[in-house]
Amino acid sequence: MATVFSAWLTYQAQSIISIDNVGIAIWGWVLGGAVIGLSLMETQELKKDKKVQTANNSDARPVISFMIALVLILICLPMMRFGTSMHEVMRLAVGKDDASKNLFRDTVTKPLSISPVDPYYRLIIGSSLANNGLIEDSIKVFKSAADADKDSLEARINLAMIYEQTKRAELAIAYREQALVLDPWNSQNLLQLGRDYLATGDATKAKTVIAKIQNFAPDSADLKSAISELG
Known about the structure:
Helix content is about 80%, strand content about 0%. The protein is mainly α.
């Protein structure tokens, strides 16, 4: 019981740092349930037999509890370091000179060297780099997010948007198509995919987007835009 309670206290410290981390929230539910469950078990055991208790078990229990709690704290430390680094990222703004940009890049990407890396934080770091003009660095981070999570729609949409904003529609198409597989009913993604096809000279593929949007969003503004721009 003491072990799980110690782990729960460690979770509380981490949750203060990473309040928006879904993984941490799940650990909270698990540890909270474990604390309650073990409390009930110990209560039942005491009721069954209050007199039966060996001296060896009494001596060993605090030591074992301390060792397990220590291991759990060591496991949580990287997450605490990561959360602290992410708060530094959110407070930063890049300067205009090269030295400031290099410092910003190093500070912002530092959390990526701390394992485990939450996929959500990869997206934050990529967006922070892109918003401050470090486009190629943001592309690397978003690519790592896409590689780490094959179902990350956000990573693929962000990559496509960056390529589109930097006039590289031919590179955006692959990520728009991947996003289409993950979310076939995203009319905005389809519309932009059609625009990318058109920008690369493939008018035939661009027109196919109109029918796809019409299948599930016949009254949408995106369909009207697709007909106007791609038809």
